Amino acid sequence: MGEEVSERVIEQRLRNRIIETIEVLAGGNQGLIDVNYNEFFEGFYDQWHGGHLAVKPNSAITEEEERAVDALGLMLESITKETSHFRSEAEYLQSGCAERIKPVAQKALKLFLSRGRFREDLEEPSPTIDKFKL
To answer: Which of 68, 134, 133, 128 is nearest to 103 (CA)?
Structure first.
């Protein structure tokens, strides 16, 4: 049998997944190359769709962090529409879309990492991992 996990730990884990997704986007062209062009966008859409976080509310995410994710999501939606006819990674790279996303993602990432990451094995009132690695 699996171990019971609290709702709070699940929320902490989801916040950490959002950070991982934003890290890819913050890499710009290199992030696109690292994960391929489908995952570059779809990884984020696993966490955000319909104009907001996929799992909401999330007590591990501040309002400011949520606004940053929403701003990034709106930008990605716009670029996704603009590039919907692309069929290859090369087209995405040549368009410069990943580099346009990069500064917005880096700003969001900096915000998230300023608080750090949560542990994924127990509840924490605030993040404690990577708190000072910017």
So the answer is: 68
